[in-house]
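Hello Y.,

Per our agreement to keep a running log of every chain we model this quarter, I'm adding this entry. I've kept the format consistent with earlier entries: sequence first, then predicted structure.
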Amino acid sequence: MASLRPGPTEAISVSSGSSSTPQYTPVSDRSENDASPNPNRPAAGSLRVQTAFSSDGESFTDDGFDEGYDSYEDVQPLSSSRISIPKYTKEEEDGIIKQFDRKLVPFLALLYLLSFLDRSNIGNAKIAGLADDLHLSSSQYEWLLTAFYITYILFEWMTLMYKLVPPHIYIALCVCGWGLVASLQSLATSFGALVFLRAALGITEAAFGPGVPFYLSLFYKREELAFRNGLFISAAPLASSFASSLAWIIVRVSDNGPIAPWRTLFLVEGFPSIVVAVFAWMLIPDTPGSASFLNPRQRAIAQLRMDELKPNHKPHQQQSPQRKSFNWKEVKKTLTDPKSYITAFMFFACNVAFSSMPVFLPTIIQDMGYTSLTSQALSAPPYLLSFLTVLLTSHLSDRTRTRSPYLIFHALLSATAYLAIALAGYFHSHLPPAIHVAIRYLAVYPATSGFFSAITLIITWTMDNRPANEGKGASVALLNIDTKVMVRP
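Predicted structure for the entry above:
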């Protein structure tokens, strides 16, 4: 019996008729020998959507290809007048992209905001009484930071799990994991317990964050990817800004309460991730062709437009919906390519600032002579500017289809700002106190804006240069492993 609901990978064909109304044409699942004896009765099988576009003024060749819309890759014409793939317009494609922009990317950005919040709130907790209550020395506090990155390094390979495990299951487990660990930090009573929890937090966050740019590359073409990576990564400065503001409120409200402010901070910022994990399981699609918020035709088009970019894509063949085996050759090719290590070094240079600034900025501002509450408040504005800068830079990069000029500009901007901070500190005895503090604080704005934008472009550039999914995943893992090995906050 014919199925009346097209699947996400159903074939959609184009006829040369004058009507633009979709027509469902049964396609036989049986061989010619088993065909129905009645030639006027359609054979049982799956339904194909047949859509004609001649009424809207678009022109077609005899082979069924639309001359009015240029796809990203050149397609060889077929001799048949009907093709068994979805034919779509630019308006349809744009509509699908907007759906992903509204329902997928913001949710992933929310998850990254929560992860970055739980990762970096150790800096806010320190000046909220953590170091005093647990009697932590300066070296012990540094080990709390280092413990996170040790496990983060060791479990970077889990980026490849996005290819092996359905993403909706994998991401939901990661989110629930770090939410639980982050909340348990509020119960720590010793340095040893807190070190263990920080190490566990590194495992859960290494499994999620580094692989999201690869996951997004399954849904967006290379000329669309930078802005979406920007939307995702901009959650980091937004989280830092939000964390400072939230920390200020929590410390102020719970200062005289029964629970220490730093314990309340860990609990309030950690528990929401556990709740959001449930929604991650239900909302995150595994592939473009399985997005529940798209209709059947949109799912077929969303999958096809990404399949067209694959080197071995054959337009005249329907793509198999089954999961393909993991290609270890692409991983080996990535690991033996010198360009992978050059990009990793660039990422390392930017990540020195990216990793250390959020956890040290409240302390740096406090050392300028401000109180704990004022330091929490002054930590927020630089990250708010970074959030806006990342979005603007990534949008311009996609619009102009270039990465390097923006990358060079922001890297130099950040380096110059850090140099100004260092020189102001070195010559502090020769500067009036007000000028010294103003230079150091104001230079934080271009410093944070620069390295957050550079990080976004480097990750996107890496995705652009790897056609295979396994190569993309290995490249992102290599970026983060090399960086975390060389960077110790």
